[in-house]
């Protein structure tokens, strides 16, 4: 019997908890890891790029002034990961704590690289990063807390695991990987431990974590650092010449184990394991594969091709027959699309605050239905919405090409606040969400407290600059931004002013 019958589950757990812990990190020498005050009646709007990354900047000082440590989730050579609670909002976060005296300059560069990569990623199946702190002894990376456990732990909890469930999990993994690959980002350590579920709920979604070994590369360049976890490492990584396709190999290994409970390549030691990986020879002869479909086996074969040039890409894997056959039909909500067409633009500041609420205050459960609509529109699965993808949706609603063009042109003008000529995930959430989802009293209170760092009940210009440091504005521009919030011109922003600005904007969209 395969994993569906339960026999594979015990072997799967053993592999996940014991064998995937080993890391290899042999580095070759040819890769480097890589205030003037305006009148309150004259409000000048300042233009700056709006995306979630503007809130992720390096902060110095005592992190414990802002966070309470609840429990240690894991420990390693360089530090530990803890569950923490943000004191001002009560929101739970995960905190990676890294000892400065345990890392060399190269590892510090890797940490900075992880933050710089992760904060630019905006995808429903990639972990969100919120803050970066530094004190005399440690670096701290604050990310969202994913409480649902690792991929294989989740599988072992499912009584009747089948190919449809496996395809659903692999689809989400590949969508995130494809999103990264379209940005020339290689994860390099895809494994079950780095795929976590948002919660313990039955239909919780998954997210890829730990971009500590991720690397952004040029189109034609190759990486040479042998890094990853032995059972999931691609043959070209062993040979120290590889690119994005190494992630697809890792996904193929994960899918293989999901369906049968054991890895495609094994060995008595690492050298023997690597030899078998490089050979690329594996089989479906064991009894566990008797009830597995030919389409599933075919996809695995295409993902585990030793020659990366002949290996299927993440994008191609998402279009494979097995993925298509096992995909549930998710219908678009035409009424919501009609409302989306009426979305009105916001000032840059209002858009930024709405994105903060979306990424750091709204729960993943609240965003689930919107995420479903986003993925249905995203036909090519690159993690963003193009004009053509949106046009196709509106053509299904209106039999008027001119009207469809006008709607999409207006939507891009209003919702594409970072000017990327595509609608990113967070931009879509802000535009698609109902007013009460974004401007509920409890959400506005938490958002206000995120700005009100000292907890005195008001926001100063300095506090605004601290939380939005990524906007990189001049002093005059900061004055303009703050004056938009400071409705009465008294030099501080209270909760009423903060609320009035956001509620007024939301009401204008009704």
Chart the SSEs and their pairings.
Blueprint: H1 7-17, E1 24-26, E2 58-60, E3 67-75, E4 79-86, E5 92-99, H2 105-118, E6 129-134, E7 138-144, H3 151-157, H4 163-182, E8 185-186, E9 195-197, E10 206-208, E11 215-216, E12 226-228, H5 235-238, H6 245-260, H7 270-279, H8 294-303, H9 314-318, H10 321-325, H11 334-340, H12 348-361, H13 364-377, H14 387-397, H15 401-415, H16 425-432, H17 435-439, H18 441-451, E13 458-459, H19 461-467, H20 475-485, E14 493-494, H21 495-508
Parallel strand pairs: 2-6
Antiparallel strand pairs: 1-12, 3-4, 4-5, 5-7, 6-7, 8-11, 9-10, 13-14
The count of domains is: 3
Please state the overall shape, judged from the principal axes of the Cα atoms: globular
* Residue share in helix: 40-55%
Average residue-wise pLDDT = 87
Low-confidence stretches: 1-11, 13-43
CATH domain topology of the largest domain: Transferase(Phosphotransferase), domain 1
How are the strands of the largest sheet arranged? 2-6-7-5-4-3
Query: How many DSSP helices?
Result: 21
Secondary-structure-derived class: alpha+beta
Radius of gyration over all CA atoms, rounded:
24 Å
What do you see in this structure?
- It contains 21 helices and 14 strands.
- It is α+β, with helices and mostly antiparallel strands and 510 residues long.
- Helix content is 43%, strand content 12%.
- 43% of the residues are buried.
- The radius of gyration is 24 Å and the shape is globular.
- It has a 6-stranded mixed sheet, with no helix packed on it.
- The protein has helices spanning 7-17, 105-118, 151-157, 163-182, 235-238, 245-260, 270-279, 294-303, 314-318, 321-325, 334-340, 348-361, 364-377, 387-397, 401-415, 425-432, 435-439, 441-451, 461-467, 475-485, 495-508, and strands at 24-26, 58-60, 67-75, 79-86, 92-99, 129-134, 138-144, 185-186, 195-197, 206-208, 215-216, 226-228, 458-459, 493-494.
- The N and C termini lie far apart (56 Å).
- Keywords: ATP-binding, Cell membrane, Cell projection, Cilium, Flagellum, Host cell membrane, Host membrane, Kinase, Lipoprotein, Membrane, Myristate, Nucleotide-binding, Palmitate, Repeat, Serine/threonine-protein kinase, Transferase.
- Residues 67-323 form the Protein kinase domain.
- Its EC number is 2.7.11.1.
- Residues 365-400, 403-438, 439-474, 477-508 form the EF-hand domain.
């Amino acid at each position: 019997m395969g994993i569906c019958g339960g026999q594979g589950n015990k072997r799967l757990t053993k592999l996940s908890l014991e064998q995937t812990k080993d890391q290899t990190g042999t580095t070759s020498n040819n890769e480097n890891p890589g205030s003037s005050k305006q009148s309150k009646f004259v409000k000048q709007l300042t233009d700056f790029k709006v995306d979630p990354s503007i809130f992720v900047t390096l902060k110095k000082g005592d992190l414990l002034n802002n966070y309470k440590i609840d429990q240690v989730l894991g420990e390693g050579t360089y530090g530990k990961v803890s569950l923490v609670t943000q004191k001002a909002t009560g929101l739970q976060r995960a905190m990676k704590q890294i000892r400065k005296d345990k890392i060399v300059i190269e590892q510090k560069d890797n940490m900075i690289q992880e933050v710089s990569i992760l904060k630019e990623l905006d995808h429903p199946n990639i972990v969100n990063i919120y803050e970066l702190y530094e004190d005399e002894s440690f670096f701290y990376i604050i990310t969202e807390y994913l409480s649902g456990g690792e991929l294989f732990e989740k599988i072992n909890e499912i009584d009747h695991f089948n190919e449809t469930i496996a395809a659903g999990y692999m689809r989400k993994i590949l969508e995130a990987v494809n999103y990264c690959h379209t940005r020339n980002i290689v994860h390099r350590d895809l494994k079950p431990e780095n795929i976590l579920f948002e919660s313990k709920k039955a239909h919780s979604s998954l997210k890829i974590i730990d971009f500590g070994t991720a690397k952004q590369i040029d189109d034609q360049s190759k990486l040479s650092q042998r890094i990853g976890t032995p059972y999931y490492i691609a043959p070209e990584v062993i040979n120290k010449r590889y690119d994005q396709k190494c992630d697809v190999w890792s996904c193929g290994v994960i899918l293989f184990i999901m369906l049968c409970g054991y890895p495609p390549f094994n060995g008595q030691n690492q050298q023997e394991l690597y030899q078998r990986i490089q050979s690329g020879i594996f089989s479906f002869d064991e009894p566990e594969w008797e009830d597995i479909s030919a389409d599933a086996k075919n996809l695995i074969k295409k993902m585990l091709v030793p020659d990366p040039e002949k290996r299927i890409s993440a994008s191609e894997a998402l279009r494979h027959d097995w993925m298509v056959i096992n995909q549930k039909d998710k219908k678009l909500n035409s009424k919501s699309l009609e409302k989306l067409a009426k979305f009105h633009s916001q000032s840059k500041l209002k858009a930024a605050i709405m994105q903060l609420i979306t990424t750091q205050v709204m729960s993943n459960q609240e965003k689930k239905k919107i995420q479903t609509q986003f993925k249905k529109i995203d036909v090519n699965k690159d993690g963003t919405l193009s004009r053509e993808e949106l046009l196709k949706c509106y053509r299904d609603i209106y039999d008027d090409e001119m009207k469809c063009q006008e709607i999409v042109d207006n939507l891009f003008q209003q919702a594409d606040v970072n000017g990327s000529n595509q609608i990113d995930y967070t931009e879509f959430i802000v535009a698609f969400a109902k007013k009460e989802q974004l401007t509920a009293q409890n959400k506005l209170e938490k958002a206000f407290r995120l700005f009100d760092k000292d907890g005195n009940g008001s926001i100063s210009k300095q506090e605004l600059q601290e939380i939005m440091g990524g906007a990189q504005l001049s002093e005059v521009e900061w004055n303009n931004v703050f004056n938009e919030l400071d409705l009465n011109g008294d030099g501080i922003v209270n909760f009423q002013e903060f609320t009035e600005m956001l509620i007024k904007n939301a009401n204008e969209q009704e």
